[in-house]
């Protein structure tokens, strides 16, 4: 019973972060399962089965608060499902030991870019409203879905910074769209695990506990991302990406940094991250940013507005 309670609390905390920042549910939950002795394939399968429910609830909540761009959901979600099914099916014969630190370095670069851009420049308005192209979203979805299934998490850490870096979608809609499309990825990954593993090693009581905690947090996280200023949210997301991937790099075989070095680096990063978020808050209060969804019509909305004006005229 104690294990189930801890898993429920972990699911709640993981979904609160994931729904607010577009990442970390899978990484957090899988890490906990591995720590208590679950094998990697079963851990990833357990998390993805729970994510079917949490992503459905999170997507519905984000939709309710206007955080979803459905074009992005379809264009990245379907390729992501294909990648996730492939990754889940072949997980038992794949090693991610080499790929993990390489991907962490790439993500670290994206995280630094996002952190710097939103902290010092605010919401990138130049490209807002321009549609994200399928030729960008489809390959991104396949790669993110594959890594998500093979690594127990990765849809948010890969998809969120890549779309944020494009500057074409405001942060809350990036997060809402990534969280919503993750439902398709979770269903496909779960199907792949069930085909490849059956139900071996999957504790459905653990699945239910993770799901219960996530369902409680989903609407709270969707409300939070709706009301946090884009500049502050961008700085927070960038900091999460940087800290998460620096941790992976420090613990990789490339560096194998000792505990003292790791804690010194973490202390410096957390201090810089707090300063960046504080600076973003001060700049937002000094010059509040316009709400892109209220002040600028997207290309698809303009014809409707014109038609409405003509009808009223």
Report on the architecture of this protein.
- The chain has helices spanning 2-21, 25-35, 40-64, 70-89, 99-121, 134-151, 155-166, 171-197, 204-227, 230-251, 259-286, 292-295, 301-312.
- By secondary structure, the protein is mainly α.
- It has one domain (2-297).
- The longest helix is centred in the last third of the chain and has 28 residues, at 259-286.
- The termini are far apart.
In short:
The protein is mainly alpha-helical. The protein has helices at residues 2-21, 25-35, 40-64, 70-89, 99-121, 134-151, 155-166, 171-197, 204-227, 230-251, 259-286, 292-295, 301-312.
Q: What key attributes describe this structure?
A:
about 325 residues; single chain; mainly alpha
Averaged pLDDT, please? 76
Q: What is the number of domains? A: 1
H/E order of the elements?
Answer: HHHHHHHHHHHHH
- What's the total count of β strands? 0
Low-confidence stretches: 290-313
Secondary structure class reads mainly alpha
- Percentage of residues in helical conformation: over 70%
Global shape: globular
> Count of DSSP helices?
13
List the helices and strands and how they pair.
Layout: H1 2-21, H2 25-35, H3 40-64, H4 70-89, H5 99-121, H6 134-151, H7 155-166, H8 171-197, H9 204-227, H10 230-251, H11 259-286, H12 292-295, H13 301-312
InterPro entries: TM_pro_TauE-like, TSUP/Inactive_protease-like
Region (Disordered): 285-313
Protein name: Probable membrane transporter protein
